[in-house]
Each structure stands twice: as structure tokens, then as C-alpha cells.
């Protein structure tokens, strides 16, 4: 008889300096990066938080550059993953933004050997984050293995003398490659269940959203990470219509456990950390156009209230802005 083993999942949003055990190979120039690096290459912000204080891994083309015109290849290795007869599913987000972008390749490293890449993307895409999915069969996963991300740059510099000193002038340096939010499952991608997307489903025309409500209070950053950990395409909820607001309110009021914590409010994905008083939905950076603010809100008390909370249960959870370090329940949304 066959047994259905529970699926294990590891997630890395690169939000602390330990980087979940991912290590750049010797001589590589993958760096732990935050905020917008350049308007002409690299992402505007990280994918986990969608704010200036989030982190990701990036091949820094200027850091890799030298005075010689040559290709500099850099790799970063994951921790080792255990064997699995059911295969593995790897999901991650990448950013290929810059006119000099060469490629991003992913390998499954077995017994120290890279083999052929299991994923390849070449050239400039755009400034957005994009998700990739890789299914590894048991030819790879019958052995312990590592995931290896590889990119390269042709960046170089020349030395110019001005203002009493020499300065680098860079060429072919619009080639920063970034990765974030790597999720690894010990089963094939085809076996992953959609049930993890949340137990509450809302259909709006051809669009389907899955919501999960979480009673344990977390800071906004912690809640954002928890949603990403729940599913690689899940994020703190974005509320884009009165109908969606009403649906969330009904769900909370009709659930005794949620109703009992209503006074604590619920975090959403709204945030104005990047530009004060310009709230955006951090799942995609879109401006908040539908609004449901409580009278007098947002008010930015103390100058540090950047996060949007479903705050006022007595008025159907009208919105307020709060400090992001406050701990509140939260709502995750997977939008299909």
C-alpha cells in the first residue's frame, strides 16, 4: 500500500543576513540587497514586502566589473535538500531588468556536479518581478541536491582622472539580476493542492480570490512574510472594490473566532512607506484607488504610521493607518 506523506515546504524571503543558508560561491558577486538599486537595472523593491526595507539577492554588475573586458559568472547555492521519491517543486521570483542583462540559469547540483540547467531565462525582461516554477523528477531527487542560481555580466570599467583623482567609468553594467521568495516543496508541482490558498473563496466574474484569515497577531513585515510562506503567490490582502470590502467584513462577522478578535483589526497589504500619503498595494505596487478610510484617517500619528489596517469593527472595518511594528491579525489573499 502507498502512504501519503505530508508535503514539506521551505521558504526563503532573504529578509535576514543569514539568507536561509544560501551561500555565494567563491569569487561570486551575489549580494544581499535592499531597496531600489538603480532606475536602469534591478528591481524597484523586493518581492516579499514590496517596500524599501525588504531584501533580495542580486548579482551586482558593478561589483563584478573589472578593468578587463571579460564575462564574470556568479553562482549562489542553496542548502542541501533531502531525497524524495515524489520529486520536488521549486518556485521563485526573478527580476531581469537592464539592457545588458545576459541570463539567469538554475541547476540541480547532484554529487557536486551541475549538469545541464533546469531553467534558463535570457535578456532584459522588465522592471517587474516574475515567477518561475521548476519540477524536478526523481532522477535528480533520489540523491541529496542543492539548487544553484547562476548569472553573468560583461560589465567593465575604465579609469578616468578628474578633480584630483581617478574614477571608474562603467560600461555594460545595466545587468543586475535578482531573485527572491524561493519556495521548495518535496513533491512535484503537479501534486501541489490548491487548498493551501485559503479556505474562503470569492468569485468575481472570471477572477477567483482565495483568502485565509489569521488570528495570531504579527507585525506587518511578519504577516507579509507569513503570507508569502503560505503560498508563493499569496500576499497580504488588496481591497479593490466595495464588494471585496463587504465580503471580508461578512466573513469576519460570520466566524465566531474572527469576530472575537475584531477589536484588534486586520492587516492588509496597503503601505505608504515609500512615499508618504501615497498608499499602494504591495502585492503589485498598484496605487490604492478604492478607499474606505474612517473619518480623520489616515493621520500618520507620530510620523510613522505606514500600514493599512481594517481597524474599526463598529463601522464595518473602515480603514486606519497604524505603525507597522504593531502586532495585529491579518488576511492573506491568493488571486487567480
TrEMBL record:
Statement: the UniProt record of this protein carries the keyword Zinc: no
Positions of the MAM domain: 10-191
Coiled coil: none
GO cellular component: membrane
Pfam families: Lectin_C, MAM
UniProt key word Disulfide bond: yes
UniProt xrefs under Gene3D superfamilies: 2.60.120.200, Mannose-Binding Protein A, subunit A
Keywords, in A-Z order: Disulfide bond
SMART domains on file: CLECT, MAM
SUPFAM superfamilies hit by this protein: C-type lectin-like, Concanavalin A-like lectins/glucanases
All copies of domain C-type lectin, residue ranges: 211-333
Signal peptide coordinates: none
Protein name per UniProt: C-type lectin domain-containing protein
